[in-house]
Amino acid sequence: MKRSLALLIAASLASAAAFAQAPMRSLADPVVAHADPESLFTSKNAAIHRNKQAALHIMRELLQCNQWARSDQWLSNKYIQHNPMAASGLDGVKKYFIEVAKRVPTPTCTKLTSPVVAVQAEGDYVTVLTVREIKYTDDPSKSYTTTWFDTWRFVDGKADEHWDPATLPLPVK
């Protein structure tokens, strides 16, 4: 009995080790963007509509078109940032996108082209879900899709706080 159990445990461990070394592949269906993303940034509730419209401007003018010189229209001076790659405060966020990430502004920006999946709003919070394409590390010619999110808390029509699932980059080996 003890020998059978030991063999079963050894086989399980060997199987788990082989599984851990095998390249992982997504089992999920592809994430699909909404056909008319700007239509998702509306609400019959006036306060929620204002916040959704501010989120639309952040998505379109700032994140898509890199017009960070205009960021004071949509972000508060306090702007609390929970992304570990950027500092809090309007100046810290602008510095990150302009000086660190070296984002170059697009001169005209009239339509949101980001692959938005859904926009959800409740009270002062707006969450935007977008398609995120990730390349497989073992074969960068292939990729899978997952969902990214950005959530903002708004005060007086400006984003005052932000969350997303960003993490610090892994060390290079």
What would you note in describing this structure?
With 173 residues, this protein is α+β, with helices and mostly antiparallel strands. It has a single domain, classed as Nuclear Transport Factor 2, Chain: A (Roll), CATH 3.10.450. It contains three helices and five strands. Strand 2 and strand 3 form a beta hairpin. The mean pLDDT is 89.
Task: Give the SSE map.
Blueprint: H1 2-21, H2 46-64, E1 75-81, H3 90-100, E2 116-122, E3 125-135, E4 143-155, E5 158-163
Parallel strand pairs: 1-5
Antiparallel strand pairs: 2-3, 3-4, 4-5
Counted by DSSP, the helix tally is 3
- Strand runs, count: 5
The low-confidence runs, each spanning 5 or more residues with pLDDT under 50, are: none
What's the CATH first level?
Alpha Beta
* Structural class designation: alpha+beta
Encode the helix/strand succession as letters.
Answer: HHEHEEEE
How many angstroms does the end-to-end distance come to? 45 Å
Q: Provide the spatial order of strands within the biggest beta sheet.
A: 1-5-4-3-2
Task: Please give the radius of gyration in angstroms.
Answer: 21 Å
Outline, from the CA principal axes?
globular
CATH topology call: Nuclear Transport Factor 2, Chain: A
Mean pLDDT: 89
What percent of residues adopt helix (DSSP H or I)? 25-40%
**Number of individual domains:** 1
